[in-house]
Write a structure and sequence with these properties.
Blueprint: H1 4-21, E1 41-43, E2 49-56, E3 64-69, H2 84-90, E4 92-97, H3 113-126, E5 133-138, H4 142-151, E6 156-162, H5 175-183, H6 187-198, H7 203-208, H8 216-219, H9 227-236, H10 252-264, E7 285-290, H11 298-307, E8 311-316, H12 327-339
């Protein structure tokens, strides 16, 4: 006969385990219990809403239109340090938006590189910015730009990937290259990435538990940053941060965790299998990489540029992961995207 006390303990442990593994429901903006909507939004065909912010010159007067794709733990309110002189000189319109689950954009529990590319296409159509546009993606936003190059190349005038995040399980890549790059990461990040790739259902618990260290980016572990990154972060800490409180307001699982699951999950394609979207040189694709980047090892992005000769690769010798926060590099990336 089963001991009732033992049975109760087992049932209780199962319940606690289930609760620990199951992510909380997202606090969708505008819903009961959710934060109010303060930004303009468009409604997509699947019913989700995407929040956006416009910058630069008015789109009716713009010669160039760039959709900016933010990275991990960021939002449409990111400060893009492009000089006003360059904006006025070239007549640039910027469209910033919150990716699914971030800021005030509705979550998408099924998001992929493909779905995020089509989100960009639909956002561009809803705001009538034209048949073609440029995309500029930072860090984790790089996987969305790869998605654009794969799924909507006919809508692009050009694309730039700045310190783009890489997956250590991409198909068609040399395994020794990925293993060596993976070993350069902090031990805690390697474990987090393994969980995101092999057991995504466990990621919420992994990111919430206190027994083992999880992700360096979120734990205040500064060893993951280069000297150049630390110098930039020190300077930025003295400036007011706009919109930071909104980044994960709908829940960390729908924003941060899904980013890791999507970027490190199974891909339908490999970046090195993408065809040149501009065979007649009517546009260009760029990768910007810091040689001292400790978040994204330069070896993988350098390899991609070698395999895809149509990509213009820019490696900055002393720069780290936050190279785009320096005006000189940001201006250079924007100018190269539009004029090369």
């Amino acid at each position: 006969m089963v001991n009732p006390v033992a049975a109760a303990v087992v049932v209780g442990l199962i319940g606690l385990t289930y609760k620990a593994l199951r992510p909380p429901r997202p606090k969708v903006c505008g819903s009961p219990g959710g934060r109010p909507i303060t930004s303009p939004r468009v409604k997509l065909s699947d019913g989700r809403h995407v929040a956006y912010r416009e910058g630069g010159v008015p789109k009716e007067e713009a010669r160039y239109k760039i959709i900016v794709v933010h990275g991990f733990a960021s939002s449409k309110d990111l400060n893009l340090p492009v000089s006003q002189e360059l904006i006025d000189e070239l007549g640039i319109y910027f469209l910033f938006y919150d990716r699914a689950g971030y800021g005030e954009s509705d979550p998408d529990p099924s998001r992929t590189a493909k779905s995020e590319a089509y989100d960009i296409q639909e956002l561009a159509d809803k705001l009538q910015i034209g048949a073609k546009f440029y995309v500029l993606g930072f860090s984790m936003g790089g996987y969305i730009v790869w998605g654009c190059l794969r799924y909507i190349p006919h809508r692009l005038s050009g694309a730039s990937l700045v310190v783009p995040f890489v997956s250590y399980w991409w198909p068609s890549f040399p395994q020794d290259l990925l293993r060596e790059a993976f070993k350069r990461l902090p031990h805690r990040d390697r474990w987090t990435f393994r969980v995101a790739h092999h057991a995504p259902w466990l990621l919420h618990w992994w990111m919430s538990q206190k027994l083992f260290p999880s992700l360096s980016f979120l734990s205040g572990n500064m060893s993951v940053y280069s000297p150049d990154d630390l110098d930039l972060l020190n300077s930025l800490s003295k400036q007011p941060s706009i919109g930071e409180e909104k980044i994960t307001q709908q829940g960390e699982h729908e924003s941060l965790h899904r980013d890791l699951i999507t970027a490190l999950g199974k891909w339908e394609f490999s970046p090195i299998e993408i065809r040149n979207p501009f065979p007649e040189k009517e546009g260009s694709v760029h990768i910007w990489q810091g040689y001292e980047d400790r978040v994204v090892p330069h070896t993988v992005n350098r390899y991609i540029s070698q395999k895809l000769g149509w990509i213009q690769y820019h490696e900055i010798a002393e720069a780290g992961h936050f190279l785009f926060l320096r005006n000189i590099h940001c201006d250079a990336a924007v100018r190269a995207l539009l004029l090369s």
